[in-house]
Amino acid sequence: MFCGLYDECQGIMGNAEFVLLPSICYEGCSMTVIEAFSLGKPVIATDIGFMHEAISAVGMNTVFPMKDYNVLRHKVIELWNDPDLCSQYGKIARSEYENKYSEPIDIANLTKIYYNCISENS
User: Fold this and answer.
1) Any idea which architecture 6-120 has in CATH?
2) Residue range 75-93: mean pLDDT, rounded
3) Which of 21, 66, 110, 115 has the highest CB neighbour number within 10 Å of its CB?
């Protein structure tokens, strides 16, 4: 679903309690998850691909099996009714962003890749 230009989407996401991503397609690296994490927003997402890795691995219990709408409903209600849990997951999300996906980390990782390529071809 197109919600508008990038800045508009960031504003909408920034005002949300959490982000819902019920994707039925495998995504190698979901920018939606990374952007939500950068804003300190927990993500409720399908338990496939990157979403499973990025969300479950850090202890957020917010993934659900694809097309299992009962579990999805439970996850939404759980975060909606528990602001403390939502806030806790938001802090985990922000920390995960800062430790893995922030600009300085991204630049350092990319630089390592370039150095490894150069040293392998020397």
Assistant:
1) 3-Layer(aba) Sandwich (3.40)
2) 97
3) 21
